Amino acid sequence: MGIVSVVSVVVAIIGFALAALWCAVGVAGLSGRLKRNKWIGVRADDTMRSAKAFEVANRVAAPGVLIAAAITAVGAALNLAVGGVWGLVFAIGAAIASLLVIGMVSSLGIRAASSVPVEDDSAGCGSGCCSGGDDEPAAHNTDPAQDCGQSSCGSCALSGLCTNEAAQA
């Protein structure tokens, strides 16, 4: 078994794994079961602003993601069937084509998500202080959690994020 054969099998396995992942994402997006998360789906500022925008973007992109999964699976199968350097060319070409398709349908999903109206969050966390405290300026204190008038913001990374312009003056 030559080095090209071993590489062909490894590339085919990776291709089939990507095809399975993209198929699962496409089916979940099409059915509306893909929820906002950190790793998969169409992720951009417009899609992550609400659950509805994320759902719309992934429903729009899902058919293209399924097509990309099929292209990748066919490329991996051709890689195994043809073998050699040409098999690798088919697999790599299919992967590139799939990434282009996913990029195009993701941009369509982002465009669709941008047309979703922004949810009014005036009664929720979008107004006032970030941690649910009052909007009064925090007293001058060295404790970074005092920005919001609370005992803790939950993370040192949030230090200074809750200050408003009056507190900065």
Automatic annotation (TrEMBL):
Keywords per UniProt: Membrane, Transmembrane, Transmembrane helix
Pfam families listed in its UniProt record: SdpI (PF13630)
Membrane-crossing residue ranges in chain numbering: 6-30, 56-78, 84-105
Domain of life: Bacteria
The protein, known as: SdpI/YhfL family protein
